[in-house]
């Protein structure tokens, strides 16, 4: 859980077999020609000689390669690709946080909806883990080109030293940035961000944390930590998810969990983001207790083990740095310690309050209206973005009804659609609409979620 910017495994490499086999241009998904096994074996041998364990990804069965005399079977794993070798290679590399070999452009996967948001973020932060390669013109030998340090270039002592340095990476190593969503974040893990606000709206920042390893003891005990350090009294209500403002680490409106300490002059807010409800709740409570201690000058007495104490103190230090950076930009006023609830006492009256989606979204929308946060000045039309539409979100402005099974979506005003292809399809000669795009309906509870829709019934978010 400690803050990390380069939390990677440099002992494993995921290899896209199709890319290695067809370096001269690749092949279509439907291409069933046999792969160039000689090239693939060369790549495995060379990378294993670098000290790497290999995970080979391919649509075709490559499991027999582990029996080849030139392959170290103890450091070889084959995984069949079901979605295309490039995206499966990147997904597996993000799972293992390791090197990966593919001729595909890794940057294209930073916003690919087929990857979970945490995988997109890992690719964004770890371009240097992609291993470029070539085949030497004369010998035809496979030559990997490492952007990050090659494992064979360091002694075991040096690798251990680097590992220890990574473990001790502190909050000062994070790169502060204002995300496209308007939140301010650093580049460390677990992901953490603060929400800009105006002084006339709120006197304290809103801290968000991304749900990480649910098995981590700190995460599992996050609720009890917030109860111990902040509030007592009434039983916690069933807190609501909010989906009406942009999440910190994605252009999309991700599921989040909002928690607030009420009964004080300036209630303390925190947000947990993630794909699982329990993980979101725990992340919100962890963010709450981190935000509370970030507002204090004294070091917290956590009453946990040494490692967990170090991790929690690192999170608090990161939160303080984020808030200080926000204040230096004129986003937050100075935080006064007496603005926050005192630690638990026998007559403590503050408690967690239920936060509705509308209440938090309304406040957050006002917070994001700060003049220091950039907004698009001009609302572009879909026609102006023709050729660059893939991955863009649009909102339905007029109802549109397509017959079941026709390939067209049924749409109501307010529905959100993600465009799946870059270009607009021209209408037929007698068509009353100006053009069509293919997209995925994000707000559907039943019926078709993939289909065509007219460009003149939607606008960009």
How is this fold's topology laid out?
Elements: E1 9-16, H1 17-21, H2 37-49, E2 53-58, E3 76-80, H3 85-96, E4 98-101, H4 117-125, E5 132-135, E6 142-145, H5 156-167, E7 177-178, E8 184-185, E9 192-195, E10 206-210, H6 217-220, H7 222-229, E11 241-242, E12 256-262, E13 268-273, H8 277-294, H9 306-328, E14 351-353, H10 357-367, E15 393-396, E16 416-419, E17 436-441, E18 450-454, E19 458-460
Radius of gyration from the alpha-carbon trace, in angstroms: 25 Å
The proportion of residues in beta strands is: 15-25%
What is the helical fraction, as a range of percent?
Answer: 10-25%
Shape descriptor? flat
Q: So how many helices? A: 10
Can you walk through the features of this model?
The chain has 461 residues and is of the alpha+beta class. It folds into three domains: 9-165, Rossmann fold, CATH 3.40.50; 171-367, no CATH class; 383-460, SH3 Domains (SH3 type barrels). Helices cover 25% and strands 18% of the residues. It has ten helices and 19 strands. The chain has helices at residues 17-21, 37-49, 85-96, 117-125, 156-167, 217-220, 222-229, 277-294, 306-328, 357-367; strands at 9-16, 53-58, 76-80, 98-101, 132-135, 142-145, 177-178, 184-185, 192-195, 206-210, 241-242, 256-262, 268-273, 351-353, 393-396, 416-419, 436-441, 450-454, 458-460. The strands form four sheets. Strands 7, 8, 9, 10, 11, 12, 13 and 14 form an eight-stranded mixed β-sheet that branches. Strands 18-17-16-15-19 form a five-stranded antiparallel β-sheet, with no helix packed on it. The chain starts with 8 loop residues before the first strand and ends with a strand. The model is unreliable at 1-6, 25-29, 153-169, 232-244, 332-358 and 364-378 (pLDDT under 50).
């Amino acid at each position: 859980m400690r803050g990390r910017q380069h939390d990677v495994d440099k002992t494993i490499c995921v290899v896209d077999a199709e890319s290695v086999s067809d370096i001269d241009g690749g092949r279509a998904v439907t291409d069933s020609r046999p792969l160039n096994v000689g090239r693939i074996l060369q790549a495995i041998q060379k990378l294993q000689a670098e000290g790497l364990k290999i995970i080979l990804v391919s649509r075709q069965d490559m499991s027999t390669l582990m029996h080849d005399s030139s392959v170290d079977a103890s450091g070889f794993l084959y995984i069949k690709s079901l979605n295309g070798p490039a995206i499966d290679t990147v997904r597996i590399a993000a799972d293992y946080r390791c090197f990966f070999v593919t001729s595909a452009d890794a940057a294209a996967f930073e916003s690919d909806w087929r990857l979970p948001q945490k995988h997109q973020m890992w690719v964004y932060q770890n371009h240097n883990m992609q291993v470029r390669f070539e085949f030497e013109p004369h010998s035809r030998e496979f030559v990997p080109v490492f952007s990050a340090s090659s494992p064979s270039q360091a002694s075991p002592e040096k690798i251990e030293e680097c590992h220890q340095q990574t473990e001790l990476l502190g909050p000062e190593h994070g790169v502060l940035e204002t995300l496209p969503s308007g939140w301010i974040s650093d580049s460390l893990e677990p992901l953490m961000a603060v929400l800009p606000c105006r002084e006339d709206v709120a006197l304290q920042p809103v801290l968000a944390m991304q749900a990480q390893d649910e098995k981590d003891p700190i995460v599992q005990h996050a609720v009890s930590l917030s109860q111990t350090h902040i509030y007592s009294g009434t039983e916690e209500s069933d807190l609501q998810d909010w989906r009406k403002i942009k999440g910190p680490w994605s252009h999309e409106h991700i599921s989040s969990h909002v928690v607030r300490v009420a009964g004080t002059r300036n209630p303390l807010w925190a947000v947990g983001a993630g794909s699982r409800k329990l993980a979101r709740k725990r992340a919100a409570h962890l963010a709450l207790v981190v935000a509370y201690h970030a507002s204090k000058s004294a070091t917290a007495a956590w009453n946990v083990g040494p490692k967990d104490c170090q991790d929690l103190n690192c999170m608090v230090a990161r939160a303080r740095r984020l808030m200080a950076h926000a204040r230096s930009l004129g986003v937050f006023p100075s935080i006064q310690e007496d603005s926050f609830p005192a630690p638990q006492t026998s007559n403590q009256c503050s408690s967690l309050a239920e936060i509705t989606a509308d209440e938090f979204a309304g406040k957050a929308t006002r917070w994001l209206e700060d003049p220091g946060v950039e907004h698009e000045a001009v609302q572009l039309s879909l026609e102006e973005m023709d050729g660059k539409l893939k991955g863009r979100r649009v909102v339905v402005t007029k109802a549109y009804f397509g017959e079941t099974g026709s390939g067209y979506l049924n749409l109501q005003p307010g529905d959100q659609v993600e465009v799946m292809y870059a270009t607009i399809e021209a209408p037929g000669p007698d068509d009353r609409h100006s053009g069509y795009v293919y997209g995925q309906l994000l707000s559907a509870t039943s019926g078709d979620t993939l289909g065509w829709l007219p460009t003149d019934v939607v606008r960009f978010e």
